[in-house]
Amino acid sequence: MRTIRNVIYVVKPYERGIQETLGRYTRFVMPGLGFQIPAVHLIRVRDIREHTMDIHPQPVITKDNVEIQVDGIMWVRPASDEESIKRTFYSIDDWKRAVTQLAMTNLRQEFGDLTLDESLVAREKIASALQAALNAFAEEWGLKISKVEIRLIDPPEDIKRAMHKQKTAEQERRSMRLLATGEFEASEQQKLATIQRAEGERAAAIMVAEGKAEAIRLVNEAAQQYFQGNAQTLKQMEMTENALRDNAKIVITEEGISPTLLLGTLPVSVAPSEK
């Protein structure tokens, strides 16, 4: 707060004020340039920006009778309307001190309703509850609690050592469980790989055997279908070659090739070859 007694005054954009005439409230002062009579008027100005305020470290006792050290921080601002500015001057003498003391008292109460374990994981819950409790009173003083944060929750040293041991044991237990799970999964993968490899080898052997059988079948079918006819043709060609050597002529009939002697002998039929 600042007090203006000059004839000419300036209220800044982040300020609001009140004017008193001979000790009585007369009007609300907005930002800008103004004039007053120093012997008659007095201007009181309030900064309406957010004020950062510490909740000092203090011991509190939890629901399970453990004493811990806690502290916090809060953001408070006077409301900018006329009625709220009047309350900051006439409803409370030192609003910053009042809010700080109120926060410390309610902080002890909030932690007193929780056990140590609950307190360590309930920072946001405690901060929200504390903010709501502070705003219920601060409104009467023309103030607004914008935000509250719990910064420190410090248990005694013996509690911290026990918590550390518990955390270490839990980490070791999780590590052993992960290791066992990894080994089990590795063995399962190895077993599956062995089975798949055996099945692949078996399938490959079957395919090779089937390929060989199919090749033999095809050779047999080809031999049965083509070898006899080719042998007959070869025999005919041999006989034709022999006939030509004996001055014979070639007679082509519907039944095939027949060699005939030039001396007028009868056509000689080609004897079928033996199988």
Topology:
Elements: E1 2-4, E2 8-11, E3 15-21, E4 24-29, E5 32-35, E6 41-47, E7 51-61, E8 67-78, H1 82-90, H2 95-112, H3 116-120, H4 123-138, E9 143-154, H5 157-245, E10 248-253, E11 256-261
Antiparallel strand pairs: 1-6, 2-5, 3-4, 3-6, 7-8, 8-9, 10-11
CATH topology of the domain at 51-155: Tetrahydropterin Synthase, Chain A
Instruction: List unreliable stretches of 5+ residues.
Output: 257-275
Mean pLDDT: 80
* N→C terminal distance: 130 Å
Description:
By secondary structure, this protein is α+β, with helices and mostly antiparallel strands. Among the domains are: 2-47, no CATH class; 51-155, Band 7 domain (Tetrahydropterin Synthase, Chain A). Helices cover 50% and strands 28% of the residues. It has helices at residues 82-90, 95-112, 116-120, 123-138, 157-245; strands at 2-4, 8-11, 15-21, 24-29, 32-35, 41-47, 51-61, 67-78, 143-154, 248-253, 256-261. The termini are far apart.
Notable traits:
Tetrahydropterin Synthase, Chain A, four-stranded antiparallel β-sheet, alpha+beta
Brief synopsis:
The protein has five helices and eleven strands. With 275 residues, it is an alpha+beta fold.
